[in-house]
Amino acid sequence: MATQSSTITPAREVRSATGSAPHAAVRARWFGALPVLSLLWREIVRFYRQPSRVVGVIASPVLFWIVIGSGFGSSIRAAGNQNYLDYFFPGALIMIVLFTSIFTMMSVIEDRKEGFLLSVLVAPVSRSVIVLGKVLGGTSLSAIQGLVFLAFAPLIGIHFSFTQFLAIALVVWMVAFALTTLGFAIAWKLNSTQGFHAIINLLMIPLWLVSGALFPLTGASIWVRLLMRINPLTYGVEALRGLLFPANAVAGQFSVGRAVAVLGGISVVLFAAAFALVSRRSTKPAA
User: What pTM value is reported for the model?
Assistant: First the structure.
């Protein structure tokens, strides 16, 4: 009996190990995604617990869009015979995405001061989890805020199909991802929110001004046109403009496909750069 029991027990162990292997793999994949989802959800909850920030990132661009679009509507002629309020709409949408994406990543500096970032860095997870979780959280917030502003489009006579809406949502998400990743990279190297604000005002506002949001590429000075062509935001603005106003071919300087391809490439490069920054910072003390 003892011999029989000793031969059955290893067999049971083998069957148990074999049967649990797929479940262990599933659990491993799930637990790998759990930190990303936790950081993502934390960013969303943290943002919407501050109603003043929610109102600010939408109200400021909306007021800017109304004042600039209405005030300059008769003095600035958009491409073709397009209404300037319509022409400025994609630029205002990008501004909302810009504000939300960049300033959401200010939480990186706050997390470092509070000690939360250190606790995540010493956790047994890949450094890519930190980048992906924070960036996806900011991207989700930015895309949501941008699509909320999109609800104003029918009020000024801008209509689009469901297919167009899906394409617009994709472009908004890609722009949000690229900007959030850039904001993460900037915030990761800084220790003060004041310095973060200074760099953002110095870098991002000029980028938005020469993105085609306020005026088309045609008719601009040569050096401004050069800046617009190398400006990543230009491709986001033009992609949205091409999707919102497909009949107005004069308004678009780049095809939607080309703009989306450029945005995708920029997003990959920025994410790789952000991951490199996190990895270098985390491995530096050990060297």
Answer: 0.78
